[in-house]
Amino acid sequence: MTKPFPRSPQMSGWEAPQRFEGDLYDLEIEGEVPADLNGSFFRVAPDPQYPPRMGDDIFINGDGSVSAFRIEDGHIDFKTRYVQTPRYLREREARESLFGLYRNPYTNDPSVAGLSNTTGNTNVVMHNGLLWALKEDSLPIAMDPLTLETIGQSDFAGQVRSQTFTAHPKFDPGTGDMYCFGYEAGGLASSDIAYYVIDPSGKVKHEAWFTMPYPGMVHDMAITENYVLFPVAPFTSDLERMKAGGLHWQWEPGLDVVYGVIPRDGGAEDVRWFRGPNAFVGHTLNAFEDRGKIYYDVPLTNDNVFGFFPDAKGRSPLPSELKSSVMRVEIDPRRADLRAQGEVLVDAPAEFPAVDDRYLATAYRHVFLMGFGGAMDLASVPAQPYNMMFNAFLHVDAHNGAVRTTWAPGAAATVQEPVFVPRGPGAPEGDGYLLALVNRLDEVRSDLVILDAEHIDAGPIATARLPFRMKNALHGSWAAAEEFNRPS
Amino acid sequence: MTKPFPRSPQMSGWEAPQRFEGDLYDLEIEGEVPADLNGSFFRVAPDPQYPPRMGDDIFINGDGSVSAFRIEDGHIDFKTRYVQTPRYLREREARESLFGLYRNPYTNDPSVAGLSNTTGNTNVVMHNGLLWALKEDSLPIAMDPLTLETIGQSDFAGQVRSQTFTAHPKFDPGTGDMYCFGYEAGGLASSDIAYYVIDPSGKVKHEAWFTMPYPGMVHDMAITENYVLFPVAPFTSDLERMKAGGLHWQWEPGLDVVYGVIPRDGGAEDVRWFRGPNAFVGHTLNAFEDRGKIYYDVPLTNDNVFGFFPDAKGRSPLPSELKSSVMRVEIDPRRADLRAQGEVLVDAPAEFPAVDDRYLATAYRHVFLMGFGGAMDLASVPAQPYNMMFNAFLHVDAHNGAVRTTWAPGAAATVQEPVFVPRGPGAPEGDGYLLALVNRLDEVRSDLVILDAEHIDAGPIATARLPFRMKNALHGSWAAAEEFNRPS
Q1: Pairwise CB contact (< 8 Å): B2 & A26
Q2: Among residues B435, B483, B460, which one has the least CA distance to residue B39?
Q3: Are residues B130 and B488 in contact, defined by beta-carbon separation less than 8 angstroms?
Q4: Among B19, B37, B148, B149, which would you mutate to test the A interface (most chain A Cβ atoms within 10 Å of its Cβ)?
Q5: ipTM score for this prediction
């Protein structure tokens, strides 16, 4: 029998577990779904199957629950399924949680020793005709993009020896190659990064192993025309701490952010580590090169956003002490000086970026983010993780940082990560649609909104109404229908 | 593309369409599910698949959506699926409503001429190893009780020639025989009743056709040791009115309620029609015989509860004009006098009864109903059909009409129809559990509560928490696990 979940802030209210799998055919729609949209909007949310083994838990440790909005001919069909990880299957069999603290296998039940820790809860992306559920602590889980049936965890037919795999791979717009990596690649709390390039048919084209200056957190990455960049956030992992039942991560206020830079086809000997001031590193907007310099656009925060991973003294900042901006980090890979310079691109907190993926790794102009609009009384929002309270979409001009437009649906709504879909193959950059879930806190249910990306302030072109709430997802992506038919 | 549903009282708020199908494994439970509960609680709710063809609609015209709570070893698994009626399948194909007014085929799209009108939305009962979704306008739909997959509409291998089939058959506790009937059996708006007895293996043991005094509404029935009773409510159907695009039913303030009484094995020549004052007839509690007289316990209301079927002048009473009581109707089948006498059993509105089915058709003591408790501010409840506002469970002693206990979970909750489950095969009458959904209006979600039937005022033994609201069902039933394994 499933005992009650704790009614803690991360497991109650809007974030209470949903735990259901199912389908909703032909969503009720206000407005008109553009006829040129044909594909699926995928997203994955942490949704714990069983109450936490340790009494309570942090939201990023929940089992991955994938949703697909299949859009075609103006119709939208909804489907949601759990990622059937080895962990999910074993816990379902036991009817209870067997895995303990976030990425600390020493707190797991002895019966699951050696079993993959992954929840697959962080991102879902299409590659090689399959949908991949990603979590940076383990190898990815392949799923059928149409049925959302889990196929299984994969090391790409033995080609990927890393024990881990990023949740934020980048796809070269020209070749479709997947640029990806694992950190703690050689083992728990190790400083190893294993970097891979995997072609659209699943063949590993390039591999390089190297070592970080400290065993830090590398949640995202970036690619430019010639380089790959690995931003290391100043958390450290420690095996002895974990063995003692402690947390995987400890915030390190005394450590720099370091940016590993390696040529796309480089080896360990080519890696250089650039340094910037201590900060919490957010999600990659994009990166590009200009006159030999690398520019990396990313939100940086002055202190630890993940307060549930405190520093060595057990300290975490209050939300009011956090100051967050979208930064443009400048790195000159030709210089001996290993300093990364940063300048403010947007002087406001904004996160969960979406760009026109056809302009990845190159000079780009349009980026969409979650941010704050004036309409929301933040005090009315139930206590939630910092990054779940955004109530507006921002359209930022990356040429000059201007926030061109914003849209907030009302005082009782928050938003989830948007994805950008170009209007068509030949459309100019930024000409297309923004798709995202809106949390209707007032009605305890969610909407999928489709916005004209160049006119997000005009409100939705179409709103697909869900009859229930959808917990905040972490990340997701759009896949055009033709990607479902690739040979795999 | 599904256009928006109307935001009318019967299609918004708690009653907004849900339209999803899916599963929730191992429900989160507060308290302890009794280990001796092994079976399924089935219920069916009207849940329109597409916005109404006529602009708006009444709740009883929505597509049947069946839920099953499978309870075993202290666990509860939830499943919900649509009854895939011919109508549901055709409308899904067309992606719009093709059927018009409630039971008026003349308002349907010409493309569905001749197709069964049924939604299967009124009741679900087990018989012959199958789950039957019932609606009184058509033949029943068989479903798999474990998967809820629809098997198909059935005329019992050609044995049932009636075009219709009641949603409230009665099962003889000794033999398991199903006592059932269709009205409008010979055709739309006809006065024909076809009465059947079908044994547990699906074989028709008895059939009789006869004619009502007027083409009225026969929503329920009753059985006693020797008789079958058909209560006819004073609505009339009229083919010409339907052809002109009017309603199936018209309330008739000038007509008596009539009770057709026939010996269990009787023929048309044996039917006698007893008369009582004009009233709205509710759902059968039970019936029994004592010293040759038939006693029929049923809620009666002084005027038309179904205000959406007004009288010939278009009049419907205000809710405040309705006066409802649970009555004991006395009929003496030996007398020439065809008057039915009524006395008040419970002087309060109460409906959706549940009894210990082992005591059907015989002297009984315990009956459970939905009623009103003091805790609820009715003004705070969104406008809903009359019978959806109950906020308490009543335990009535049918020996003397005493309302022994009541339980209301709070000011912001309403309740759905309960079912009674005996504690075990040898348990005394009323010793067991009451299972029902509670609508948590405050949290926009539902609970399944399990009460000790003899102590419903003590609050739930176990509460299984659903993460979403479940629209008000019409009816449901409990089936013990051994019923799933009967040869069919």
Answers
A1: yes
A2: B483
A3: yes
A4: B19
A5: 0.95
